[in-house]
Amino acid sequence: MIKEFQEGYVKSETHRGITTIEFFHPQSNSLPGKILESLAQEIHFAGTHAETKVIVLKSGGEKAFCAGASFDELLSITTAEQGLAFFSGFAQVINAMRRCPKFIIARVQGKCVGGGVGLVAAADYTIAVEPADIKLSELSIGIGPFVVGPAIERKIGIGAFSALAIDANMWRNSDWAKKKSLFAEVHPSVESMDESVSRLANSLSHSNPEAMAEIKKMNWKGTENWDTLLPERAAISGRLVLTDFTKNAIDKLKKK
């Protein structure tokens, strides 16, 4: 299934129990609202799809895995309600990943920024390449990683999350991400990464679905309040994105 938008797409296909969900946007795989909405829908469907045993989440292209929120869409927000609606898209994707009873493997072929780090953190197992540096850039444009924060903090701990959130202009390399447990594996090449993704996905596709669902439920214990927490966080981002500071900061970045 392919959902194409004015720019970019979300597509999914299932083979031998493995459902691959791929998103793409020409601006470094940034995430406008339509792509976020479609990602949440595809993850939810795969979670209920009897033929799906395991999910692989990936992005198109050979460079960035995900540049986070779409700057064009951020600049188009003019009311707090619109801001809430946009950032709720990230909440819906993360909650769909959390509630999905199937394991989600993230394939990370390049750099991750902002919301992209949130997607990686919400995956159950992440396999990356060495150049996959990460950064939480939100504070540098006057907002913060409010919606994705709980997923990242859960995976790497409050100390490492705080370091990322506060030093918003600094890239951390893949070795740092692996040491903090954001990445489960780091590979020297795309070929090696894809071989490992295929190996694990095939192994899980033959594992007991009930056992995997119970392990996932155990691993996500204590996040039951995210259905209300993440939308509350989205409202904070939705308010801050309206400030002159944020509008000016995004405009400067777009002109670089």
Folded structure, characterized:
There is one protein chain. With 256 residues, this protein is of the alpha/beta class. The chain has one domain: 2-enoyl-CoA Hydratase, Chain A, domain 1, CATH 3.90.226.10. The chain is 50% helix and 16% strand. It contains eleven helices and nine strands. A hairpin with a 2-residue loop joins strand 2 and strand 3 (18-24). The longest helix has 20 residues, at 80-99. It is globular, with a radius of gyration of 17 Å.
One letter per element, helices H and strands E, the order comes to EEEHEHHEEHEEHHHEHHHH
Structural class by secondary-structure content: alpha/beta
- Strand line-up of the largest beta sheet: 1-2-3-4-5-7-9
How many domain regions?
Answer: 1
Supply the number of helical segments: 11
Relative strand content: 15-25%
Radius of gyration: 17 Å
Output mean pLDDT. Answer: 96
In the CATH scheme, the class would be: Alpha Beta
Major sheet details: 7 strands, mixed
**Parts with pLDDT < 50 across at least 5 consecutive residues:** none
Q: Indicate the CATH topology.
A: 2-enoyl-CoA Hydratase, Chain A, domain 1
Distance between the termini: 36 Å
- Rough outline: globular
**CATH homology superfamily:** 2-enoyl-CoA Hydratase, Chain A, domain 1
Q: Count of DSSP E strands? A: 9
CATH architecture: Alpha-Beta Complex
Topology summary:
Elements: E1 2-4, E2 9-15, E3 18-24, H1 33-48, E4 54-59, H2 71-76, H3 80-99, E5 103-108, E6 112-113, H4 115-122, E7 125-129, E8 134-135, H5 149-156, H6 158-166, H7 174-179, E9 185-187, H8 190-205, H9 209-219, H10 226-240, H11 244-255
Parallel strand pairs: 3-4, 4-5, 5-7, 6-8, 7-9
Antiparallel strand pairs: 1-2, 2-3
Helix pairs in contact: 1-3, 3-4, 3-10, 4-5, 5-6
